[in-house]
Specification:
The chain is an alpha/beta fold. The protein contains ten helices and seven strands. Strand 6, helix 9 and strand 7 form a beta-alpha-beta unit. Helix 3 packs parallel to helix 4. About 50% of the residues are buried. This is Transketolase. Belongs to the transketolase family.
């Protein structure tokens, strides 16, 4: 796919995020929208995966450490062909395969169940280490929230990954600068994120995470990096693509009502 085609796909995924959360009457649109470009690039361009064989042994792995942004992951999986797009309307409903946080037993394409913040990155480090020990070529990608970096377990995992030189591991930080209680630096600042990760022996790349060309550049550099893990710090806009959601902390975990949903979809249709 060309970058333009991937951008158009990302816009469709944003629409699906809103449709899922609206129909579920709950969920987390803000951080799902900020990371929509990343979800799209990973599943449509970057990762070695096969929707027809979701448990393929040599597939690349993805860990959504900030598991509450499952609507973004589910939308990417649906559009990539793991399950019907219409299933997104069943988000968070009893009996649905799409629960509020990713569940590997219920949802095709989900590599690991996540939701308790801080733990996903440790799991990703274990996956990357397993590949090294088994002489496998698959790579592991992990998406964390910037507020999630307040969890101490993140830094224990980073210390281990750097020490073990896990160059098949890519940590991606969705740095939209907002968490549920407000601005990151006002709640509990993790800055400077880049210097801290460098101290743990990571190759650090800082990009505009809502720019497909910059995501593409960073992923290429990550593959070229040998002897150390890579961290991609994505500066993003929370609620990206919907004017009244952008940079508003209240949209961290709230579903739009009917009027808001229609307005949001109208804005995204104009982008199409």
């Amino acid at each position: 796919m060309t970058l333009h085609e991937i951008e158009k796909q990302a816009n469709e995924i944003r629409k699906s995020i809103l449709t899922a959360v609206y129909n579920g009457k709950s969920g987390h649109p803000g951080g799902s929208l900020s990371a929509a470009d990343l979800f799209t690039f990973l599943y449509f361009e970057e990762m070695n995966i096969d929707p027809a064989n979701p448990k393929m042994e040599d597939r690349d792995r993805f860990v959504l450490s900030k598991g509450h942004t499952a609507p973004g992951l589910y939308s990417a999986l649906a559009h990539r062909g793991y399950f019907p797009v219409d299933e997104l309307k069943n988000l968070r409903k009893l009996g649905s395969c799409l629960q509020g946080h990713p569940c590997m037993q219920e949802t095709k394409g989900v590599d690991i169940s996540t939701g308790s913040l801080g733990q996903g990155f440790s799991i990703a480090v274990g996956m990357a280490l397993a590949a090294k020990m088994d002489n496998k070529s698959y790579r592991t990608y992990c998406l964390c929230g910037d507020g999630e970096l307040q969890e101490g377990q993140i830094w224990e995992a980073a210390m281990f990954a750097g020490h073990r030189k896990l160059d098949n591991l890519v940590l991606i930080v969705d740095n939209n600068d907002l968490q549920i209680d407000g601005k990151l630096d006002e709640v509990c600042s993790p800055y400077p994120i880049d210097e801290k990760l460098k101290a743990f022996q990571f190759h650090v790349i800082t990009i505009n995470g809502n720019d497909m060309s910059e995501i593409s550049f960073a992923m290429k550099k990550a593959k070229e990096t040998k002897g150390q893990p890579t961290a991609i710090i994505m500066r993003t806009v929370k609620g990206k693509g919907v004017s009244f959601m952008e940079n508003i902390p209240g949209w961290h975990g709230k579903a739009p009502n009917e009027e808001e949903y229609k307005q949001a979809m109208k804005e995204l249709e104009r982008i199409s």
